[in-house]
Amino acid sequence: MSDTSISVELNGVVQEYPAPDGEGVVRIVDGVNLTLDRPGIYMLLGPSGCGKSTILRMLGGVRPIGVKTPTEGEVLINGTRCDGPHDDAVMVFQRYANRPDLSVRDNVALPFRFKLWKKRVPAAEQEKRIDEILAAVGLADKAELRPSQLSGGQNQRVALARALVLRPRILLMDEPFGALDAQTREEMQLLLIELFNAHPCVIVFVTHDVDEALALGDRVLVLSTRPARLALDIPLAEPRPRSTLWKRSTEASRTRDKILHQLHESGQDR
Amino acid sequence: MWNPYEPISSNLRTVLGGSAAIFVLLIWSLLSGLSVISSDKLPSPWGVMSAFGQLAWSESSQEIEVEKPLPQSSLAGTMQSGDVLPVERCPEVCSALLAEEGTGEPSSLDCEVDWTEEDAPEGILWCQAQVTGSQSLLLTATMWSVGRVLLAGLRVIMIGVPIGVTMGAAPRINALLSPLVDPFRSAPIVAINPILVMWLGIGEAMKIVFLVLGAIVYLIPMVRDAVQAVPRTYWVSAYDLGATPFEAVRHSVIPMAMPRIADAIIVSISVMWTYITVAEYINAEKGLGQLIQNARRFSAMDQVFVGIGVIVFLALITYSSMTWLKNALYPWEVEA
User: Chain A contact for B234, CB < 8 A?
Assistant: First the structure.
């Protein structure tokens, strides 16, 4: 990515959905202000159901049917108001959404079947990018296998490669490593750090796991219980990959306690 | 303690399945062998076997009649124009005519020429021949029925799958069409047959339309459900990667729904085998349904059993070969 200048701004964002019982509305997000003005890994934490995914989807321009998104406020990407799908952001889901009938390579190449990218990226460039990203996520030797022949971590690598092959300026990750075992998760975190260092971009990373937030985040953003407000915004300066020693340091422990305390408090509110 | 829910080995499965079949065969043999049930109600297994043999392969003697106005092109070499055909040459000309019809070698031949006018070269040649040959009623009937199921099956797939996919993918179209489609899933399709006879007559068209209708009312809702069952993530992910709605359906949703669409096709084609007899009851000249219907009319219970047996066998072959094909094409659902 040559152009790494990127800014994402949420100005007083409010999101309401029609209530499930059909009467009135439920407020999910309640006036969130946030500025992410340089490449970095931004960890989004909060009690379950608090609206983390709603914010993520808002950034990705994925809108639910028949609901104005956002209800109030505005999402600005590079200063441009965004209220629909846009090509700057790509999402990675916990369920990898890989096509089981395609090889790893074809799965990564899937976006190039869509008109949008077919026109934008020449065929030779596509091949080059696919080869590069497969090598970067460590799947170069598995390119011809099917997703069913891969482990969960490897499947998530495929999904990650499919997103990164588009060289997005914003990468949105919705609990991407939530379904993986502890060891695989750690491997994936290291991989993400490597990929980020190679191609810095804005990564908004939703997680449940405080330790994951401490391992990855440039900033840890903790949301309150529903309706979500920004409760904590903690910058972490420690360079990545972060050592076990740092993770056990007083600074880290104190931060962890602070986050857990906030999460716990919101839990009691409910 | 004996546990009936315990998984079993494939050997035991074969043994149990085989012994059940043998048990039924034994009871059947006993009932008919000891004349507990008279043979015109329940034919014996060996009776059914011999009926099968007879239907599958029999020497037949057929009477064939051909009538042609004279002079004919087939006589070009043998007659000059203006010649009068002498009655002695009649059998020779008749043989040529019958050969032209494509029948076998006649064993006896009758022939007669009706001259329209005395001493005129125009006339009607009438030949009657006795032709003996071997034939397989069962094979002919099977071919016809298989042909009808194939023809109707292709149409069901070509019409039903696109409609079902569109309904599954587009909620508006589903809302529009489902009140028209869904009630027919439980409608008595067999009762619709008389209506089809009135609209389309008693020819091939009626039979094919009936088969298509009978299967498509199952196929469309099942294909729709298959498409709706694709996890939302695949839609969201495709849109997010920049797909247009059509591209999302084509590249993310349909491929994911394919195993279940294939299941739907298998079920609806199998259903067709249950409808084939009904389709062929009315004015079928050939086909397994006609064979059963004919046999029933002459109280030939053994032949009825043969017809049913062949249909069951064909349905089984259809089912297992299509299931095999599905597993070969879409192996991931089985692996997962």
Answer: yes
Of B101, B135, B169, the position where a domain reaches its end is B135
Asked if A11 and A35 touch (Cβ cutoff 8 Å), the reply is: no
User: Which of A101, A111, A148 is facing B241, going by the closest CB pair?
Assistant: A111
| Residues of chain A neighbouring B239 (CB-CB closer than 8 A) | 62, 85
Answer yes or no: are the C-beta atoms of A153 and A187 closer than 8 Å: yes
Helix (H, G, I), strand (E, B) or coil at A202: strand
Distances (CA, A) of A155 to A93, A159, A247: 11, 6, 28
Say whether B7 sits in a helix, a strand or coil.
coil
Q: Chain A residues with CB inside 8 Å of B236's CB?
A: 62, 91, 93, 97
**Phi, psi for A122 (deg, rounded to 5):** -65, 155
In this structure, the answer to whether residues B301 and B196 fall within a common structural domain is yes
Q: Which of B68, B30, B312, B234 is nearest to A96 (CA)?
A: B234
Domain total for chain B?
2
What 8-state DSSP symbol labels residue B203?
S
Is residue B275 within 8 Å of B289, Cβ to Cβ? Answer: no
User: Could you read off the pLDDT of A46-56 as tens digits, one per residue?
Assistant: 887 788 888 88
- pTM for the model: 0.79
Q: Are residues B95 and B193 in the same domain?
A: no
- What pLDDT was estimated at residue B86? 67
Model ipTM value: 0.82
Whether A60 has its CB under 8 Å from any CB of chain B: the answer is: yes
Q: Which of residues 210-229 of A touch B (CB under 8 A)?
A: none
